[in-house]
Amino acid sequence: MRILHVSDCYLPRLGGIEVQVADLVRAQREAGHTVEVVTATPGEQLPGVHRVVANLPFDLPVHPRGTAHLLRIMRSGRFDVVHVHTGAVSPFAWMGVRAAVRSGLPVVATVHSMWDPVTRGVYRALQAAFEWRRWGLVLTAVSEAAARPIRAVAGPRVPVQVVSNGLDVTAWRPEPGSVRHSSERHSSVRDAGDGPVDDVVHVVAVGRLAPRKQPLRLLKLLETVRTRVPKDIAMRATIVGDGPARGRMERYLRARRMGWVSLPGRYSREQIKDLLAVADVFVAPAPRESFGLAALEARAAGVPVVARAQSGVADFVRPGKEGLLGRTFDDLVASVARLARDSALRQSIAEHNRETEPVRCSWPAVLEGFAHCYELARS
């Protein structure tokens, strides 16, 4: 099959959508498909990647004449299907949808984000102006939580399928002997101001340090958890990532004297894998997380996950099985504190995660899901 992916953002940018689309392209090529990409992101030339780039401030991933460029590429490529990747509102991606419709090509559009009330209002207005529900689209969402608001806007005439983000599950499985108990890993660590230490619990979070991810609320969560865990259980936390909120987070940690929390910056995948091998709890506190790829990586590595019940993480984390879920800030605090206090619960969840693969998120399952969507669009 000849597949054309259209995405505002792509490599060399590194973000959730960019990495996921690049991994999907790789997996489809390895499965024998002919795959090309059109993006508005500037960068080096890559095989099969068309860059439609305008000289705009801040390298904004959009092009004022994007539809014309996309039409030319689509009409010359003899593609079987166009697969568009969009965030909340992605102008270039929707130019791709419109160009595919005008070219008479089947279209699948994957929404990688949550549609909040403002976004839903935007798409209702676009329906009134352009009647996009009549274009013959097949929409996909990355989780049931993300699919619900899309279905509310799309209505019964537009199929909305759920196809998980993909992960090479076996690559994240810890190597034999690489996972050790907290007390073995950190027996020499002392929590600031505490007395003798019987155990050390390592809490990890990974993600972009952007306001919408609520990173300062994560620090408040950790601070509150520390007050609910006995002093003979030391804690440390590592928050991996970078972004505009980093400066405020550093000031918060200094003001609160939270020296047990570190912000090491961005990590490579290998560094994250090594970190997860020595983690006890993974926290994904954002309430509007459409999927939670970092949480899936932690779950695949065997780490108990604490996340919001209303987020996409709930698709692969069941309470008491792969981790703990909560609907409120206080619920998350209670869940992290419970895992910090209960080493037996941590161990049982970790063993379950290491022994049970998240099959729905494996690449064979994801490729099968998109193949179904492509056939649905073509029919």
TrEMBL record:
<feature type="region of interest" description="Disordered">
    <location>
        <begin position="173"/>
        <end position="193"/>
    </location>
</feature>
<dbReference type="GO" id="GO:1901137">
    <property type="term" value="P:carbohydrate derivative biosynthetic process"/>
</dbReference>
<protein>
    <submittedName>
        <fullName>Glycosyltransferase</fullName>
    </submittedName>
</protein>
<feature type="compositionally biased region" description="Basic and acidic residues">
    <location>
        <begin position="181"/>
        <end position="193"/>
    </location>
</feature>
<keyword id="KW-0328">Glycosyltransferase</keyword>
<dbReference type="InterPro" id="IPR001296">
    <property type="entry name" value="Glyco_trans_1"/>
</dbReference>
<keyword id="KW-0808">Transferase</keyword>
<dbReference type="InterPro" id="IPR028098">
    <property type="entry name" value="Glyco_trans_4-like_N"/>
</dbReference>
<feature type="domain" description="Glycosyltransferase subfamily 4-like N-terminal">
    <location>
        <begin position="15"/>
        <end position="169"/>
    </location>
</feature>
<dbReference type="Pfam" id="PF00534">
    <property type="entry name" value="Glycos_transf_1"/>
</dbReference>
<dbReference type="InterPro" id="IPR050194">
    <property type="entry name" value="Glycosyltransferase_grp1"/>
</dbReference>
<feature type="domain" description="Glycosyl transferase family 1">
    <location>
        <begin position="203"/>
        <end position="355"/>
    </location>
</feature>
<dbReference type="GO" id="GO:0016758">
    <property type="term" value="F:hexosyltransferase activity"/>
</dbReference>
<dbReference type="Pfam" id="PF13439">
    <property type="entry name" value="Glyco_transf_4"/>
</dbReference>
